[in-house]
Amino acid sequence: MADPRGFLKHDRELPSHRPVPVRLRDWKEVYEDFPEDKIRTQASRCMDCGIPFCNNGCPLGNIIPDWNDLTYRGLWHDAIDRLHATNNFPEFTGRLCPAPCESACVLGIHEPPVAIKRIEVEIIDRAFAEGWVVPMPAATKTGKKVAVVGSGPAGLAAAQQLTRAGHDVVVYERADRIGGLLRYGIPEFKMEKRHLDRRLEQMEAEGTVFRSNVNVGVDVTADELRAEHDAVVLCCGATQARDLPIEGHELSGIHQAMEFLPWANKVQEGDLDESPISAEGKDVIIIGGGDTGADCLGTSHRHGARSIHQFEIMPRPPEERPDANPWPTYPMVYKVTSAHEEGGEREYAINTVRFVGDEDGNLTGLDTVRVEQVVTDGHMRFQPVEGSEQHFPAQMVFLAMGFTGPEQNALVEQFGVDLTDRGNVARDDGWATNVDGVFVAGDMGRGQSLIVWAIAEGRSAAAAVDTYLMTSTDLPSPIVPTAAPMR
Questions:
Q1: Strands 345-348 and 254-256: what pairing?
Q2: pLDDT at position 462, please?
Q3: Buried b (16+ CB within 10 A) or exposed e, 64-80
Q4: Which residue segments constitute the domains of the chain, with CATH numbers given?
Q5: Partners of 145 in beta bridges
Q6: Is residue 149 packed enough to be buried (19+ CB in 10 Å), middle (13-18) or exposed (0-12)?
Q7: Minimal CA–CA distance to 202: which of 119, 62, 89, 87?
Q8: Which residues contact 382 (CB under 8 A, 6 or more apart)?
Q9: Residues 29-73: tens digit of each pLDDT
């Protein structure tokens, strides 16, 4: 297994970030190139650990020790074959996944874990560069038609698997381009859209049909879609943003993150010269301390914001795993993203009380209070800290507090699918909704989650749909759905 003493000889190393003053002048990805000898050295740190918990830590069931070993040996073509066996889109997960596999790495018990994500990126990028990623059309066609609604990672994974199984697959997307949040929710500096475009080219060559600017439920009805197809897979995501309905919420200058982020990507696509929502020269507050908030942070830096504060209502995470968060669970520890390296202030245990504006209805700032967590009758709540009130000037606020589930829109109403108590589309253990021939995968059924879960769910739902259409399937199914039962 790679070099059995590699983890003893080598420390974890990742490619350097481009200097902050340089990368803030463009929208390119932040990493420098990483030489082949260094990535093979990192692959050599993979231990012969006996029980590779990384496999279980990955929702896709990626067979990580195998492609680490192949990378170490320089067998790159074999490595991409092994990686693609479980993951349709390693170029996405290798850049965007928070790497639960690394959290479960056995080496990570006492040492920094194997750099699994970086190795994954290097494998797929080399495969594209060498021309090894080619269309894989089905040998025979089934004559069955499948509609996939939504072109995020779950929808794309389901579509590619079903196309390769021989079905005629059409992907419907309400936006003007295919990709869902991969296209318009992920900033260019985290994943350049050329990676998405070249994968879509492969899928089109395999036979998948993409139809953008089609809002199912408006431009085409659910009944029409069901009449034209033998099965429908709903992969519309959990795009209902969590709001903050406090005093002053109506002031001009307060935006949801997903009202802000897509414009920057449209500028990079060449659709616009500049964003209609710009942080240039403004004091910016980002409410929400997660990945979406960090995306707003990096975007605001590139716009040229005057000052940026990012608020998080939870206390600052510890530097090391607490006892209640042991290996191999995902570590809830303090993290610094590339956007945080670029500047801005992070404020923890803080709650926004009200937005403040001028007589013309423009945001001028917000009032806050520090909070502490208390448990009352078994329930955790946030209690204001007396005397901790503080005012922050701001002309622009971005709400990045997560998503509450799928939008309750015409699509959901027309399909007549049942919902769970949390508002997600309910499904059984075969990914099927209560409507015959209609299936659901990704965040629309699971709730807000990770890109790696979305791909795993799309692959698994594809196997269920293939079974529904053909009575059996050869498609892999890495997971069973996690969702509340239908009510």
A1: unpaired
A2: 98
A3: bbbbbbbbbeeebeebb
A4: 6-130 (1.10.1060.10), 145-239+404-470 (3.50.50.60), 243-401 (3.50.50.60)
A5: 168
A6: buried
A7: 89
A8: 313, 351, 371, 372, 373, 374
A9: 999 999 999 999 999 999 988 899 999 999 999 999 999 999 999
Q: What pLDDT is stored for residue 293 in this prediction?
A: 98
* DSSP secondary structure letters along 137-184: --SS----EEEEE--SHHHHHHHHHHHHTT-EEEEE-SSSSS-THHHH
SS3 399: strand
Q: Are 445 and 460 in contact (CB under 8 A)?
A: no
Q: Is the pLDDT of residue 485 over 50?
A: no
Angstrom CA distances, 159 to 147, 178, 202, 210, 262, stand at 8, 12, 12, 10, 24
Q: Quote the distance between the C-alpha of residue 115 and its chain's center.
A: 19
For CA atoms 388, 393, 397, 400, give the dihedral sign.
negative
Q: pTM of this prediction?
A: 0.96
Structure tokens at 58: 């990955």
Phi, psi angle pair for 438, to nearest 5°: -115, 125
Span 389-442, pLDDT tens digits: 999 999 999 999 999 999 999 999 999 999 999 999 999 999 999 999 999 999
- Packed helices 153-164 and 451-470: angle between N→C axes, nearest 10 degrees: 30
DSSP state string for 186-249: S-TTTS-THHHHHHHHHHHHHT-EEE-S--BTTTB-HHHHHHH-SEEEE-----EEPP---BTT
Before 262, cis peptide (omega within 30)? no
